[in-house]
Batch of 2 targets.
Target 1
Amino acid sequence: MLDLAIKNIMRNRTRTTLTVLGILIGIGAVVALGSIAEGLNVSITNSLQLTAGKITVRNKDAGIFGLGTELTKDDLDIINTVSGIKDVVPISVKTGPMSGFTGPEYLIIGMEPDKLQYFVGENTKMYQGRTLETGDSDVAIIGKPLADKYNLQVGDTWTVENDDFQIVGIVEKTDISEIDSAVIVPLDNLQAIMNKDTYYAIYVVPDDVRDTEKVAAAINDASDNLNALTAADTARQASQIVDQIRFFTFGIGAIAAFVGGLGVMNTMIMAVMERRKEIGVMKAIGATNSMILRQILTESAMISVIGGVGGILIGIGAAIGLGALSGGTIQGYVTPTLALEGLAFALFLGLIGGFYPARQAARLDPVEALRYE
Amino acid sequence: MIFMKGKTEPKHEDGYLIETKGIKKCYGEEGKCEITVLQDINIHVERRSFVSIMGPSGSGKTTLLDILGCLLKPTEGKVFIDGKNVIGLDDDDLALLRREKIGFVFQQYNLIQSFTALENVEMPMRIAGKPKWEAEDKAKRLLKLVGLEDRMTHKPSELSGGQQQRVAIARSLINNPQIILGDEPTGNLDTKTGQMILNLLKKLNAEEGYTIIVVTHDSRVAQYSDKIINLLDGQVLNETYLGGSREHEAKVSRVSRKPALVQKGGD
């Protein structure tokens, strides 16, 4: 009797709308936050492609975005003494201006031009122009999203402090944020601008990819200063962090949704009280207890599923909106699983919230209910 | 009273439609009998008869009607409906019994306010699991029967008391019950409208063969009744038979008084 359920929940439109809104906000939060956690996961997974098969060496005391202690030439020399190494790629990083809470708008990465080859994979293609070449100076290549954002083309100039770099190439969008929002310039140039000869990190390319772990261990043994991580280590750490973020975001969303569920319970308790006499009539004319139970559960499930569907749409909207606001730094990924989870969670809340009032209704004594004024 | 002397329980279509034996109803904490509402009620209702239950307030009329309508279980005693003892049936069986055999008409009409007259009449049939179109079809015919064909899409608040009660009567008929129970059906109506409702009930009884049991204060009901059961302080004070040997007549004419006007799909 779905038509009856629809009629019943439409009786008090304001109350139903508010209840739907409660679920909608809760499920919206679950989906939006969940999609950001998903997006982060995808983003980290993409980034890991860059360092796959390589070892990332940083100072033990290093922080993020160039904060903290950097690596020195001595560190580079120590790394070079370790056997099984094909090449080392020291890089310098200068962060662009911060945009809101989402991190820097771009990164200026200094790298020896001939070493760029190690980071060019199947995901990185030139959109326009050329890549860096040995002997290049005062030139830059930038990511396509960054070029679009600042409306730049090959031949234009990118200025870092007072130095101008001529843009010689634009890298096709990769979904790897380190490349999409990167300005890559020759290492010497960037070090000169920053007036230092230290490195943000040194990437180590092993002779044999299978020896990655061994080489990393050897680097860690070679100096107390160094912290060598393989892509697998990074992945492990990252997935731990992502799991924590997932747990945290789901927790926040779940609390919001749970409050929405309480709203459903409240609404249905009110509805059952108001319709007490009517439930008595229904029983008198032959409705069984389980029919009444089902009727009330159908109504509460309907309210929460409407809220759930709305919440998924709002959540998707919020994820897209946040992505746009952050200029692509935060990318929401709404997977079908996430949407289904949101819907299932909404239905679950509806049934849990509806169960108590439904049982109350089913247990109503028809004689008492009929004569209730 | 011949039927009651038999040792075997009355059989279907053979005995009384409703019969009670030694009904007692009392209320109290933890099953204790602190307030006795009904005591030693032994009554019977003939098929296709019109019975009034009368008595002062607090005499137990409504409680008795609730028991006859299987809404309330007596503390002691047996209730036979169509020869079957309903004591011991669970809630679901009782609901099914009410759905199939009993129609209710209340003093307060008890229509669902947000539903139209048509939807109210459909309700018992929808509860019985019949499809919407079938219920709608039959509800329309019944509303026509009670003279409300031009009020079908009106909500109860848009109908007069008499019209609402006619909707309630149509609702009570839709599942082809054998019994219609009225709890003060004219109690909220003016004299003229009350008369009209009584005429309608009498017509359903005389022409369609429905068994009608009405709890009432309304002395006019007497002129429609075959039997009046007078209650006082929870006991039967007396039973008055009207219209001569009605019981005999009822038995004799049982076969000839088949329902005709209202199509009884379930029969």
Note: Chain B is about 30% helix and 20% strand.
Target 2
Amino acid sequence: MKRGGMLRFILHRLALAIPTLFGVAVLIFLMLRVIPGDIVEIKLRADGGQVTQAMIEQERHRLGLDRPLPVQFASWLEGFVTGDLGTSMWTDRPVIVEIRERLELTVEVAILAAVIATVIAIPLGSLAALFAGSVLDYTIRLVTLGGLAAPAFWVGMLIILGLLTLFHWMPPMTFVPIYRDPIGNLSQLIFPALAIGYRFAAVVTRMTRSAVLEVMREDYIRTARAKGVYERLVITRHTLPNALLPTITVIGLEFAFLIGGLVVTEEVFNLNGIGRLFVQAVSRNDFILIQTLVMIIAAVFVLTNIVVDIICAALDPRLRAGR
Amino acid sequence: MSAAVSLAVPQDDRPDPAEALLRIEDLRVEFSTHRGIVRAVDGVSYDVRPGEIVAVVGESGCGKSVTALSVMRLLPAHAARITGGRIMFRGQDLAHLPAGAMRALRGRDIAMIFQEPMTSLNPVLSVAVQIMEPLTIHLGLSPDAARARAAELLGLVGLSDPERRLEQYPHELSGGMRQRVMIAIALSCDPKLIIADEPTTALDVTIQAQILELMKDLSQRLGIALVVITHNLGIVARYADRINVMYAGRVIEHGDSTAIFHGPRHPYTLGLLQSVPRLDRPRVARLATIPGMPPDLRNPPVGCRFAPRCALRAPVCDTAPSLRPIGMPGQATACHRAEELAPPPRFEPGDIQPATAREMPPTSPLVSVRGLDKSFRISIGQSGVLRAVADIGFDIPRGQTLGLVGESGCGKTTVGRMLVHLTEPSDGEIRFDGADTTHLARRDNVAFRRRAQIVCQDPYSSLNPRSTLGATLAEPLRVHRLVRGRRARRERVAALLDMVGLPRVMAERYPHQLSGGQRQRIGIARALAMQPSFIVCDEAVSALDVSIQGQIINLLEDLQRDLGLTYLFIAHDLAVVRHISHRIAVMYLGRMMEIGAAEAILSEPLHPYTRALLDAAPVPDPTIERARRQRSLQGELPSPLAPPSGCVFRTRCPLASVECAATVPVPREIRPGHFAACIKL
């Protein structure tokens, strides 16, 4: 594999992401404008007092909602280039400010969960496959079944209760970025990451187990054994790289899902993350905030997929050739 | 098992056991399945002397591969276990060797080559890594030394440009090249013994000839003993010194190659030899077949396991026969009645239908094809246009069979699919019964399905696993409103089952409960349900064991005679095609190379490609095989994405010259009714 090939592969994938994201932008923009409910009315009524048609018109004008749709859309898209994504219609604070800190928190929790899950799941899944049918295998499968069955927020509650009763301690409530106070940051975020990571690890363990089992039945594993390759190498060199392809895909999907899907867990741990922001934005019909959040989540999905593709291509020469 | 039944080692002129490199004694292997214990290998003994080529022949499920995997101790860990016997290799009993010692021996002293070159190499590791592995593990070579040796090995197995090949991955190599890489891996540590399990079954006939030639040559030059496991008696005739024939978990006959082919003493061996159509003899009117199927090894028959299928069956066959010396020196057979077995018939003029008898009075063509073309747009790797079929024309007279032969990727399946409208032609004309059917409206297409049907290669994947066979057969009757009413349909299904020689109770069964041959009968019955006049048989007998293959070929011929069917018979086995076809067409890289009467194509081939195919086709007769000149076709098939200019065959053609690159040769009538596309004729 030539170096240029890999670079071209990555550029090709990135280029393909642009139409996808554009499509998402169009869809979410139009859908929000079709949904009934007007932020201006909701906001003004929430402030109390008499709401006149004139006040509504004035507010709509201030927010730019009276402009034609294509203009609104263009100015929103422009924001992705200039970095000015507008201001929240509710709080009047710049969208970027609203999102930045929360995104930082959520991405960190997601990464921690993914790391915990991967580090636990791949060895566990491989072990379960290698000793398929043994007590070890059944134990691992039972534990992972628990991870699939128990909702993450419930696991989170158990963790908090456990910390309180055993250590009379609760994780700190306020978010500090990891580069400012790593210990404070981790002591807050490691526990939600564990709660989410359990389910995550359960999914990945089961995937790894079935993938390893499948690869072990392949003819080329028999070939490796027929060559007299050490059993350890049969696993690490011949089986795992092939078995990891579907596993990595699942890790990527689960990870991307976490960015927008942590609402309840964030609530349990009292985290000010993207999930919570999203719920607030939706309940207030905050168009600008919603559409930008959707775009960010979509972008995370697309980027994660690209990263997954790149890792898979690095593992599997057939994918590099047949893009 | 009692002592009387176990296979005694004959005290004849076999060499001193000490001489044997590998000696399998009374090996027993059991598989535990959820439906009971399968005794896959039940008292097998054979030996292999240094440097010789020993063949193990038998149909699927006879235990030939399980025996080989036992030698390598590569049986599936949980399902199978060796329950008895010894596997002596250079003074050690491999059956009881500790796992670590066994690992150190695998790949170093005994190497193995597997059937499927497409799946036997690891797709994510480069060729270099895969060849270097045994070198570094067993011989302790440094990476540099191992790499140099790997390049050397690739040269040894005839791969050009070894340095570049080392960098490649399996998916970048053709099947034949992958099998060469497998051989290079097997040779890497200079083993004493190589076990090759169906090494060429998945390869095209010209590539098969190359690979077998290479293996034989290397075995002789390097003094490596070779065990070749195969179902194909033909390839054994060319290469094997000695042959073991296995049936239902036992060796039922063994002996020198000439003894087995010229004087088989077991009815099963004789049956195997007679049920393959042969290129070296005049066509027989009807293939001899072995009736029935191999026994279920969960509950094998008491006594001789072949008895239920054997014409010589007698009360004495209720006790199991053991191998006893008979016939030529070194030959032994496990049959009580071997003395009474008639020698293989020298074919006498009375038995043989003269070649001319196949020629039917000329009838009007049922199917007529002119200038047929099919291009596929593909986007794997770099995108391009694949011209799978280019400018094909032929007629199939009513009630006759056209055989379509060629190697993989030559477009023969695409032609078949276009004739039954499963693939739309890009260009050209198809006339069916005088009417233009090239492009059909939806409504006409449905009506057309009643007249043209297809039987596919893999009978298992072409049957819905969730419906009973009765439902599968009744479906077309219902969809096309051919038979109204449940009862009438059930009767028609029963009639169809009768027609293809299956018991009526099969209607209640599911596909997985049937054997391969039975499934193919269902495939044929399904095609017949519509009462078509034309059937495309796409490699319809290729996946079947030889004794079953003969049964299906006979069935197809009977149906043709009784129902006046017209066939397009697509296959790669020339002997089979010659047996069943009235005329034969040969394709290469999407183009027609030659077409003419079956006997003319086989006895006086015109096109160099047809000649090469005939040269490569193995013949089950060691005397003929050894006398044959070896001029197997060199080189690989060019990529169909970038076919050579002019004549597509010129890159591998022994006659090729500069002019061949200039124009695409069109088929010319060289002799009456015999066309070939070659400017050199």
Note: Residues 356-451+532-676 of chain B form a domain with the Rossmann fold fold (CATH 3.40.50.300).
